[in-house]
Amino acid sequence: MKTLFYLALATGMRKGELLGLKCPIWIRQGILFVSKATSTTPVKDFPWYRPRPRLGAAKSSWVKETLKRLETHSVQQELTKVSVGGRWQENGLIFTTGIGTYLDQTKVSRELRKF
User: Which of 38, 40, 68, 82 is 20 to 30 A distant from 101 in Cα terms?
Assistant: First the structure.
């Protein structure tokens, strides 16, 4: 969750945009490109929607630190995949539950209040 919260503060991204981030992340000239986001109202099997275009707060000063944090997060996620074995549900998401499913926005909000 720390990486998710860091990215939220560094970029000003909405929860749905953060929870919908998939690999690979596209960062060009210090701008993070988001192509999918999750919704609190599930539609059919998965709650995806295309986020509204907007100017982000993403600038080159945060890129190196963000990439470092995301790389560490990725390594931790790979270790989790190995430890849970066949229970892991691969969705390509960057921020997931302990078995690879999408994080619920309400639960993320609760965790943020604890942080």
Answer: 68
